[in-house]
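Protein: Xylanolytic transcriptional activator regulatory domain-containing protein
Species: Beauveria bassiana
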Amino acid sequence: MSLSINFPLGNLNDATITVEELLSQLPRRSIQRVFISYFMETIGKTYHIVDEAAYERELRAFWMPGSVTPEDWLGVHFVILSLGCQVYNHHAFRTGQDIYEALPVRLLRGAELCLKRTPFLFHASLNIIKMLSLMVIAKQGLTGLIARLATSMGLHTDVPVSDEPTPYEEKMKRRVWTLAVYMEMKQSLVCGMPLLLRSSDMAALL
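Structure follows.
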């Protein structure tokens, strides 16, 4: 299996896959734990986009029998597993252990399918921005979309992300916007192109 050249935006009209089919693509729980650990120890500590304690609570709820999982959270989970698997494979290859060669792409494909099931172009969420941000780490080129969606949510302003925002939501709003700005600035430097953001948009970081 290979990723679409337009990952994660290929065939947006094809959202026929069911949640059950998506869940069937996940490795067993013990393997997920290994990948999550590798992610948290590397990428998680670099970008600080995933709150480890909150993610652990969400993970336990996800694994509860009969739980209903939002597609935007499930997409984040898929990307975390994919990136964690890539880190694991790098370590395993260097130490002569077996690797999961095809699994990172399969997990990213699962994240792409989760994204297709959300109205991300019309109604973004913090998890959607997190998912896309993590996808950028896996494949460059989405920073402009992330910046626009984050701005459309008002992450660059004092507008709350929900009617009754929790302290966690406010903290993650700041983290997600900080990462969006960082990636946009990095992409601008690499490509030699002007920023899509205005200087006033940076005020939320101060």
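Remarks: The mean pLDDT is 83.
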